[in-house]
Design a protein that fits this description.
- Keywords: Membrane, Transmembrane, Transmembrane helix.
- This protein is an all-alpha fold and about 70 residues long.
- It has one domain.
- The chain is about 75% helix and about 0% strand.
- The chain contains two helices and no strands.
- It has helices at about 5-20, 30-70.
- Helix 1 packs antiparallel against helix 2.
- The longest helix is centred in the last third of the chain and has 39 residues, at about 30-70.
């Protein structure tokens, strides 16, 4: 899940939680609870995207440095 998808889930969850009346679909469907679930999923996805994105950047930099120090043999 990328940063954009995570922000989408956070936004959708906030809309469902704060902007829509909880009883709009009746008492059997809790829109506010679904909104909280979307916000949690979006937050976890955002954190994972940031952490894994920084790790991915560090490994590609190390890979580039390795090739600069050891040029390929002709």
């Amino acid at each position: 899940m990328g940063i954009g998808v995570s922000l989408f889930f956070l936004t959708l969850g906030a809309i469902l939680k704060f902007a829509i009346d909880p009883d709009v679909l009746g008492r059997s469907v809790h829109i506010d609870v679904i909104g909280v679930i979307f916000m949690v999923v979006g937050g976890v996805g955002l954190l994972l995207s940031i952490v894994l994105g920084s790790r991915r950047g560090a490994t590609s930099e190390n890979h580039l440095m390795e090739h600069e120090n050891h040029p390929p043999n002709p």
